[in-house]
Amino acid sequence: MSELNPIRIFITHAFQEHEFYTRVFEYLESRDNFYYLNCSSLDAPAEGSEQDALHEAIRSQIRDAEAVLFPVEIHAQNPRLIDFELTVAQAFKKPIIAIKAHGGTQLLPRDALAAAVEIVDWNDRLITEALRRHGRGENVPKWDVIDFDPD
């Protein structure tokens, strides 16, 4: 993965701003040498559009992604639309990486969690490594290397 070949991701959103949607970007941006392209867009089709237009916009966004990030707190915002996004991701065989609720206090339908290939904590390293592992098929080591100055 490089600046010329960033990983393409879709973040579940239901076409509404949510603090955990924007928080994902903070975590991704904090990683050095991690390049991504956001395939999700909060721009909903024109007001009064049929549900078919929303569904087609979601399909279009997910089709271009290599992996889907699912911050579970977003599910409560619009469960039907988020469930549709997860179903579309599964239909397109896109890996879904769920990000746990802070404190693990939010219960989700079993189907929503079962859709995930991996469930990670809110940790920039865990999120980006899961994206590299499932989105790109990279062999990412599961241990930490800690550098310290002996002086």
Verbal overview:
The chain is α/β, with parallel strands linked by helices and 151 residues long. It has one domain (7-135): Hypothetical protein MTH538 (Rossmann fold), CATH 3.40.50.9200. The chain contains five helices and five strands. The protein has helices at residues 19-29, 51-63, 79-91, 110-114, 124-135, and strands at 7-11, 36-38, 67-71, 96-99, 118-120. Strands 2-1-3-4-5 form a five-stranded parallel beta sheet. The longest helix has 13 residues, at 51-63. The protein is globular, with a radius of gyration of 16 Å. 28% of the residues are buried.
Q: Major beta sheet, specifics? A: 5 strands, parallel
- Gross morphology: globular
Succession of helices and strands: EHEHEHEHEH
As a whole number of angstroms, the C-alpha radius of gyration is: 16 Å
Report the CATH C-level class: Alpha Beta
**What is the CATH homologous superfamily assignment?**
Hypothetical protein MTH538
Helix content bin: 25-40%
Sequence of strands across the biggest β-sheet: 2-1-3-4-5
Mean pLDDT rating: 87
Number of helices: 5
Summarize the structure.
This protein is of the alpha/beta class.
Which secondary structure elements does this structure contain, and how are they paired or packed?
Blueprint lengths: L6 E5 L7 H11 L6 E3 L12 H13 L3 E5 L7 H13 L4 E4 L10 H5 L3 E3 L3 H12 L16
Parallel strand pairs: 1-2, 1-3, 3-4, 4-5
Jot down its keywords.
single chain, 151 residues, alpha/beta, Rossmann fold, five-stranded parallel β-sheet, 5 helices, 5 strands
